[in-house]
Design brief:
Ribosomal Protein S5, domain 2, 5 strands, 4 helices, about 130 residues, ribosomal protein, alpha+beta, five-stranded mixed sheet, elongated
C-alpha cells in the first residue's frame, strides 16, 4: 500500500461520529480534527481508549486522521476506537477475530433516554408531598 492510498471507516457512539482514515506510515501518528491525539484528549484514559485497537495484534505503523463531530469526550474516544477497528479489519481481515472478541467492532447501542413530560429527567420524578 502506498502512502497516498488510505482506508476510510466510520465509527459511532452515542451522538459522536468519527470519520477515520488510515494509511501505512513509518511511525504511528494519530491526528483528530487537525490536532494531535495528546492535545485533543486530555486524559491518558481517553487516549488509551481511542487507540486500543492498535495494541491488539496489529503489526505495522499507521497514520490515522479522524474528523469527529458531536457527543462528549468519552463518546468521541469510543467512536474513534470503533472507526479505527473497522478500518483495520478492512486493511487486514485476519484482525477481525481479535477485535471482535474485544468488542470493538460492535456499535455500542446505549444512548441517553428521552425526557418524559411530568418528570424532571427520563425517570426522575418531582418530590412527592403528602399534603
Amino acid at each position: 500500500m502506498a502512502d497516498s492510498r488510505y482506508i476510510e471507516a466510520v465509527g459511532r457512539r452515542k451522538t459522536a461520529i468519527a470519520r477515520v482514515r488510515i494509511s501505512e506510515s513509518a511511525k504511528t501518528s494519530v491526528t483528530i480534527n487537525n490536532r494531535e491525539l495528546s492535545s485533543y484528549f486530555a486524559t491518558d484514559d481517553l487516549r488509551r481508549t481511542a487507540t486500543e485497537p492498535l495494541s491488539r495484534g496489529v503489526s505495522g505503523h499507521f497514520k490515522i486522521t479522524a474528523v469527529i463531530r458531536g457527543g462528549g469526550t468519552s463518546g468521541q474516544a469510543e467512536a474513534l476506537r470503533h472507526g479505527i477497528s473497522r478500518a483495520l479489519v478492512e486493511y487486514d481481515a485476519r484482525l477481525r477475530g481479535e477485535l471482535k472478541k474485544a468488542g470493538f467492532l460492535k456499535r455500542d447501542p446505549r444512548s441517553k433516554e428521552r425526557r418524559k413530560f411530568g418528570l424532571k429527567k427520563a425517570r426522575k420524578a418531582p418530590q412527592w408531598s403528602k399534603r
